[in-house]
């Protein structure tokens, strides 16, 4: 399941550099996560790094992009193969 940044985001800039897949970018008003690049850090870390550093707890799982750990690992393999 990809993650999503909610409107509680305070644009503190700490999440973007922590993302190993470059899935986080500045949107029109708040940071956004590209669900095609988000693997919840599967393949890189044990926990999502953006969630770890977020000071306002505004990065939940995205119910519109439900994926299993296996699917996230396959996405990780695809993303890193293209790199």
Automatic annotation (TrEMBL):
<dbReference type="InterPro" id="IPR017900">
    <property type="entry name" value="4Fe4S_Fe_S_CS"/>
</dbReference>
<dbReference type="Pfam" id="PF12838">
    <property type="entry name" value="Fer4_7"/>
</dbReference>
<dbReference type="InterPro" id="IPR050157">
    <property type="entry name" value="PSI_iron-sulfur_center"/>
</dbReference>
<keyword id="KW-0479">Metal-binding</keyword>
<dbReference type="InterPro" id="IPR047927">
    <property type="entry name" value="YfhL-like"/>
</dbReference>
<protein>
    <submittedName>
        <fullName>Ferredoxin</fullName>
    </submittedName>
</protein>
<dbReference type="GO" id="GO:0005737">
    <property type="term" value="C:cytoplasm"/>
</dbReference>
<keyword id="KW-0408">Iron</keyword>
<dbReference type="GO" id="GO:0046872">
    <property type="term" value="F:metal ion binding"/>
</dbReference>
<dbReference type="InterPro" id="IPR017896">
    <property type="entry name" value="4Fe4S_Fe-S-bd"/>
</dbReference>
<keyword id="KW-0249">Electron transport</keyword>
<keyword id="KW-0813">Transport</keyword>
<keyword id="KW-0004">4Fe-4S</keyword>
<keyword id="KW-0677">Repeat</keyword>
<feature type="domain" description="4Fe-4S ferredoxin-type">
    <location>
        <begin position="1"/>
        <end position="29"/>
    </location>
</feature>
<dbReference type="GO" id="GO:0051539">
    <property type="term" value="F:4 iron, 4 sulfur cluster binding"/>
</dbReference>
<feature type="domain" description="4Fe-4S ferredoxin-type">
    <location>
        <begin position="31"/>
        <end position="64"/>
    </location>
</feature>
<keyword id="KW-0411">Iron-sulfur</keyword>
């Amino acid at each position: 399941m990809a993650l999503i940044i909610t409107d509680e985001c305070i644009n503190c800039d700490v999440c973007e550099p922590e993302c190993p897949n470059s899935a986080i970018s500045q949107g029109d008003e708040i940071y956004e996560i590209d669900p095609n690049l988000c693997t919840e850090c599967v393949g890189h870390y044990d926990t999502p790094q953006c969630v770890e550093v977020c000071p306002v707890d505004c990065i939940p799982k995205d119910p519109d992009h439900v994926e299993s750990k296996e699917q996230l690992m396959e996405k990780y393999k695809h993303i890193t193969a293209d790199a």
